[in-house]
Specification:
The protein has about 160 residues and is of the alpha/beta class. It contains five helices and four strands. The chain is about 45% helix and about 15% strand. A four-stranded mixed sheet has the order 1-2-4-3.
Length: about 160
C-alpha cells in the first residue's frame, strides 16, 4: 500500500499494520493508496465542524473515496483506479497528534500504540467499517484487535 502524506510519526509501523490488514482481510493492497496526515487541534476541529457539523476536536477523521461496505472486496472497484498509475485511492485519514497523545496518556499505553490504532481505525472506515450500530462496532473492534494483536501492538 502506498501511504501518501508528509513525514509522520510511526510511519514504518503504520505501513506494517496496513500490510497486515490487507493480509488478514484477504485484500491485495499492492496497488492501493491512502493519504494520511497529522493536523493540529484547531485544524481537526474545523474539519469536524465543516464535514460532520460537530464543533469540537476529535482524534481521527476519515474521508472515504469509495462507497464501499466492509464485506465488499476492493476488486469490485477496479473501475475507480487512477488512469495514470492504476492505483485505487481509498481516501484521506486525518489524525490530531495532540489528541492522540492525550488519549495514550489517559488509556495508559504508548503514543505509538494510540497513533497506530487511530491510523488503523481510519483505514477500516475507508474500507467500509463503521461503529454506529452495536453489531457493526463489534465487527470493527474485533477486526482492529486481530490486526493489531498479530503485530504485538497491544494496550
Amino acid at each position: 500500500m502506498f501511504v501518501d502524506g508528509k513525514s509522520f510519526p510511526y510511519k514504518h509501523k503504520i505501513k506494517k499494520i496496513y500490510e497486515r490488514a490487507g493480509e488478514i482481510l484477504g485484500e491485495d493492497f499492492s496497488m492501493v493508496s491512502v493519504s494520511l496526515n497529522f493536523v493540529s487541534g484547531s485544524e481537526i476541529q474545523n474539519l469536524n465542524k465543516t464535514f460532520r457539523e460537530i464543533d469540537r476536536e476529535t482524534d481521527v477523521l476519515s474521508f472515504p473515496n469509495l462507497n464501499k461496505k466492509y464485506d465488499e472486496k476492493l476488486k469490485n472497484f477496479d473501475s475507480e483506479r487512477n488512469f495514470d498509475d492504476k492505483k485505487l485511492f481509498l481516501g484521506d485519514i486525518v489524525i490530531c497528534k495532540k489528541i492522540a497523545y492525550l488519549q495514550a496518556k489517559e488509556y495508559g499505553h504508548s503514543k505509538e500504540r494510540e497513533v497506530c490504532f487511530l491510523a488503523l481505525h481510519g483505514l477500516l472506515h475507508l474500507l467500509g467499517y463503521d461503529h454506529i450500530e452495536k453489531k457493526d462496532e463489534e465487527i470493527m473492534t474485533k477486526t482492529a484487535n486481530k490486526i493489531l494483536e498479530s503485530l504485538g501492538v497491544t494496550r
